[in-house]
Design brief:
Elements: E1 11-12, E2 19-20, H1 23-31, E3 40-41, E4 48-49, H2 52-63
Antiparallel strand pairs: 1-2, 3-4
Length: 66
């Protein structure tokens, strides 16, 4: 699901469809889609986490109503 800013953003993540106006925030966000942020991967947006518990909270808080 596209974020509200995705279409108008200067920097757009084509993995999870979030938009960013700041290049540094975008670069940090891209790292979150790599093993640098952990081995547990969200099946919805591809974000990586270090623990299964964090992944469970992420899915519940971010994707529950999508």
């Amino acid at each position: 699901m596209e974020s509200k800013n995705y279409r108008n953003a200067l920097y757009s993540c084509t993995i999870c469809y979030k938009g960013f106006v700041n290049r540094n925030a975008y670069s940090l966000h891209l790292d979150s889609h790599t093993n640098k942020f952990g081995q547990f991967v969200c099946p919805v947006c591809g974000i990586h986490t270090f623990s299964k518990g964090t992944l469970t909270l992420h899915v519940k808080n971010i994707h529950m109503y999508e």
